[in-house]
From TrEMBL, chain A:
This is DUF1501 domain-containing protein. Signal peptide: none annotated. It comes from the Bacteria.
Amino acid sequence: MTTTPLPARTAEAAPCCDEFARLSRRGLLTGGAALGATAVVGSAVITAATASAASAAAGKADSVLVVLSLRGAADGLSLVVPYSDPAYYRARPRIAIPKSTLLATDGTFGLHPELRPLLPLWTSGELAAVHATGLPAPNRSHFAAMEAIEDADPGSERRQGWLNRLVGQIPGSSPLQGFNLGGGVVPTSLFGPNPVMAAGDVDGVRFAGDDEWDEGGRLRSLHTLWDGQRGALGTAMRSAFDSVSDFEPVKATADNRTARSYPNSELGRALSQVARIVRGDVGVGVVTVDQGAWDMHTDVGTLEWGAMRRNAADLAASIAAFFTDLGSQRSKVTLVAFSEFGRRVAENDSWGLDHGYGNVMLLAGAGVKGGRYYGTMRPLEDGLDSDVAVTTDYRSVLSEVVTTRLGASRASVFPGFQPEDVGVMSSL
Amino acid sequence: MSPHPAPADVPAEATPERASRRALVTAAVGGAGAAAVLPAVAPDRAEAASYRPRRHRGTPLLGAADRHLVTRFSYGLTPGLTRAVRGAGGGRRWFERQLQAGQTDAATRALASWWPSLHYSPQKLWQRNIDEVEGGWEVMADYQRWLLLRRITTTRPVHELMTEFWMNHLNVPVHADAVFGYRFDYDRVVRARALGRFSELLKAAITHPAMGMYLSNAVSTKHHPNENLGRELLELHTVGRGNHYDEDDVKSSARILTGYRVDMWRTWEARYRPEDHWTGPVKVMGFEHRNADPDGRRVAEAYLDYLAHHPRTAQRIARKLAVKFVRDDPPQALVDTLARTYLRHDTAIVPVLRALVASRAFKASAGDKVRDPVEDLVATYRALGVRVTRPTRPVENPAAVAILWQSDSIGAVPHDWPRPDGAPIDNDSWSSPARLLASMDVHFTMSGRWWPNKGIAYREPVDWLPAPAVRFDVLVDHLCQQLLGRRSTSALLKACCQAARVGPATRIDREHGVVKWEFPRVLSTILDSPAHLTR
């Protein structure tokens, strides 16, 4: 992937003056388009879009899907360990996770000990893992795999991410807006004709100079400069005009980063912002979070040191804090975490792992039939090039989530794809 | 900020703003639905007459073609740069001079001493890091500041731009693990070859310790060659993805590159270790070698030379240059021309740049590129004509330090894109509403001289007045010439009138509310315009 551009927006009549702008804004609101959001917090990117017109019009989204992309390809064999397979220990003489330290073991799999903060979710049946998932064909390029996974419409020339199709295809959905908290770029999954909006952080969703001394001249002047401007910038400015005031309820929410003990990490910060967006209850239905430090060619390390220990702890503490922070909105939210592909079975000479194939997906929250492991792992081989064989197409898992939680048609979200039953979600 | 008294000298009913609004409301009542949009045409024409730009007779500007060339190949047009271009005999001559090697850049030389740590050895930087004298990340943040200030002050913008372009193409993020000891040297190595041959640049960059540490080649061994750099070299730095290589090629690519080691976390010595080089036959696409010598440097150089000269590399470099300097969807004919030029000149970059600016597509592309966050920030410093002074210890957040936080607030900082593919260079990526809101925040804060407010000299509002007393429309024209290097337009005049709440004919002097209170609104209106946010 070379770029993660902001989706082009559908053409709409450019407001010719402030009255028209207000008219059209009101029109949009009554028509039901509320907010979606994208946020960037450091290297973590959050993107969101509204769920459906009906829920947005009522100021509520009944379901929120949070897609957490573990960029760089997280090692699923460290996060969810197939400890009953001796090949796993042969292939990783230095970095394998000892069986005695694993959590939530079921005879086949166990969780990395640093995932301990997630145990309450596991025990209450709100957290599940699906192993040996992935693309239908191996691809060891980060960039090619990310594109394939985020577009998920093989063979189509059309550049539209699966989440963009999702928000566009939910029945009754009207043109969407979105948010980009942080000013970075939006992932391919949300690229497409449905609009999104963006800002530096939740509190940064404002026009500088549109203040108490201004008497409206600032916004009038910006409309004069930008209304009718073509191209990506003009489109982005229109999204900003149409969305800033509607975002006020989110800005009014408390920032619970300290109160809910989020880790002081990119992911912790990002998920605390997502929680504010959800708690603001402005109709956001889909949120994506990109977090990017999983490409461990070196120094995966052990339980005492290394990158995996640190990342696993951060991941678990961030997700745990997030679900606590959601409060009354918790029953709406489903989180799915996955990577573009997995890593090799065998460790390399640098205490690291090169690019592989099959991987684990984690699902947490509303609708998840948790407390157990799904998917089939074929016996591992311990050669230098051995991969985890993919036995479940990742789209089968996502199909279940979007159909059960968001009532979306899987044919429109994943065109031409015939999913298999995974059984990880309870039907609505 | 102080409260703004409403200007007393504007008869409310007479402002074109209100007149047009009335016209629209009336029309909208009569019509229905989409028809409400139509009457906008008439008021627009009426307004164009009301907001006819007036001319301020200032110093000579550049013509449209030269303005385009210089805007695209600099970090922002200023009155000083306009003078330099005119002094050189016009845009093309100025550009040709910019391409010459060995030009001095006196303006940036002074910056060399602002951050002494940039010049320390990897060993010394590591020692200071573990002694907690100065963290490696702090050195890298200062390096980013050094880059920002170079871009603001340089008199060799084409060389600076190409250095940035290549460092983004061959990305080694400054905050990647362990690279801080070698990252400034990586800059030096790329900078010295930025207007040379790509083949030489590629060899120097791929075998550099900073790249080796970032993409794991510095710890690769013959027993288990690490594939990270070998893969990205093909996928990102040269031929690109496609069906022309497979996983066996990636393995050979990784094997060829074994041997370039860094003794990380210990001595930090960077050295070629034949005992770590994988020997045996290798094959990557059309490149084959027996690779029998434990010293694999010759095969590595031959391999990198092969990749640099590959037609697919030529296409990719040509397209990337065209996307950066022409438009996001450059015509294939242009890309082909540039690729041919690149190959015909043994991967030399200067002839490619000459062909690019001579092309019809380039000439027709004025204003078609969005300034990314860093370009916007640098251009804003240049447009406002601020002077940044050397940071001194007890001063907290002087401009030379704070500029990096400003850059971060808009969504990007120099060379810290966290992935090997480098930061995007297309318009869509940098056109999020988030980025626009953040850009406007920086414009407004600097227009008001509110922050940064230490280690920086701003022009006072009265310094922007071209005469003791001047009509507002003339003032706006003067400001557009100063900030944008071009004359005001009807839209800019109207927007400034709305922001300052005065009419075009209002007489402005140092005692007027516009100078005393509203000046930040006027300056930031110009900086928020499409003309400043594009290049």
